[in-house]
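S1.2 Input.
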Amino acid sequence: MKKVNFLKMFALVALSLPTICINAQSKLDKQVLMTIGDKPVTVKEFTDVYSKNNIKNEVVDKKSVDEYLDLFVNFRMKVMEATEMKLDTSAKFKSELEGYRKQLAKPYFSSDKISDELVQEAYQRKLKDIRASHILITCDKHALPSDTLKAYNKAMDIRKRALKGEDFASLAVKYSDDPSAKDIKGTETTQARKGNHGDLGYFTVFDMVYPFESGAYNTKEGEISMPIRSDFGYHIIKVQSVTDAMGTIQAAHIFLQLPFDASKEDEAAMKQKADNIYKELAKDGSNWNELVTKYTDDRGTVSRGGALSNFTVSRIVPEFIETCKGLKVNEIAKPVRTSYGYHIIKLLGKTGVGSFDKESQAISERVEKDMRSKKSEEVVLKQVRKDYNFKQNDANVEAFLATVDSTLLAGKYVPAAAADMKAELFTIEGNATKVADFVNYINEKQKPRKFGTPMACAYELYDAFANEKVMDYADAHLEERYPEFKNLVQEYYDGILLFDLMEKEVWDKAVKDTTGLQEFHARHASKYMWEERVQAAIITVTRAESLPKVKALIDAGTSWDSLRPIIQRDSIQHVFVRKGFYQKGDNQYVDQTEWKAGVINEIHSTVDESTVIVAIIEKRNPEPKTLKEAKGLVTSDYQVELEEKWIQNLHKKYPVQIDEKVLDKVRKLYK
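S1.3 Output.
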């Protein structure tokens, strides 16, 4: 029994230890570690920053508590000085901080789960190319429910006819509101154009609006989709083929152009010509460029051997893509007829699709800009409304929207006399938004509209208004709800202030104070020294036939400064001359030469016919660098001196008092 009681007691003690430690830590966190000027700094303020920058062994230069304390004090003094100078009130500072804050806030207003799913979905779709046709029944996105239903029923009727076996292309020509489906006759000002009969050709992810893309990728090859709603109306999609993605395609062609209204005789003659060219190629494919030059009507590609600019499947007619898909690299296809004429195609290459790791970043950026990102926004909005206790007064919303008239469609909205401006539309954490607030929003956002009804337009504006209000409220309370966000914004606040202050007090001063810079250089001249060096001329001759001419000029006593102009004057080719000062290690050829004035060394290459001639003009002992020669280093060191003196003054202005007993407790935390 005693043993059991002992075990129970041990367990109770063990369980209570974390709580005791946490409470002890919490008490220590609240203690004042130091005062800087008249501002107290708690242990937590210091340890939060210390821990973040010295996590285990992950930092390159881990600091001890005492070392870091000095850095922390200097940093805090500088920020205090910047605040006293009101650098945080400038328009530049506010704009820069706001820009950073927006970036930092983004993760709080996005659903990682939905975003990741969308990226993965887009990648899977990118692996396939789809060829599809569609029939469009237009319907404005703000249309009345009755008009929407009418368009949907019309689309369903056409789909039923297609499923019963009627030709999809014929139905597209007859009923589709997509003007590209029908043939267009030429006029005096426009060319005739053959319609696509609903055939949209090949496409892949991001080539179509998201609802259409999803409808196509979710329909099996050979099947016809249910009506798919997009901002344009209802689409009936017939998927003709689903094939592995080609990615970016490189191809060349010999093109024989045919007018839209070509006669049967012209068609037959052009086909025969294309076949004959192909037969010539079949004998010996090496004459490709010759036949391109001789026959192609695409004269812009002649100089490139018929090569087109790189393209993807959605950028060129489907018959062309279909042919490319059946070719191996450098293979030439039999002539193919498109709406433009005949093409003899040679596949030069294709990229395909990379791995998910390689493609995901670019896909993620596209998803963020694409309308599909609204799915993530919708999830976030729903959660934000819940988090901030959004409550809508449906009765008041309906009552107000019922008062909206045609002045809204005209872009000249005038509230009806019956509208109750004080009525509450919704509350966010108990804060009321009233009709008057929404009316102000309408006046800012309204614009003339040709379609829809006043009620539909009002609902659209109200949804945008309510969403904007709740998101703005959430954004304004991020620091209050998420302490880690508040701390991160504070870090950027301090960092921007520190940069602006250092620029003003140290960096710019060092650059502009030319007298101080000269005096600093004079006091520390021995720090900026040239090592032993030589002045040398280096003549590189890359062709053997030029070497005797160069050597003749040198033997004749031509000065090193005159050598380059004379070589240029006499048009001696493949010779390069440079002159300068060199220390050990600056130039391999100078290092191979005896450092004595007047020495000329000839170094012949062992791998080609080039020769390097090195002439030592002058040898110099170690000597100080001029300010011009060492300005970068001098300026940097002068900045350090200015900062040290400035920090000494800051210590006088903001005296530091450290509680050694509390500091000793902090030291023990990190032993």
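S1.4 Remarks. The longest strand covers residues 233-244.
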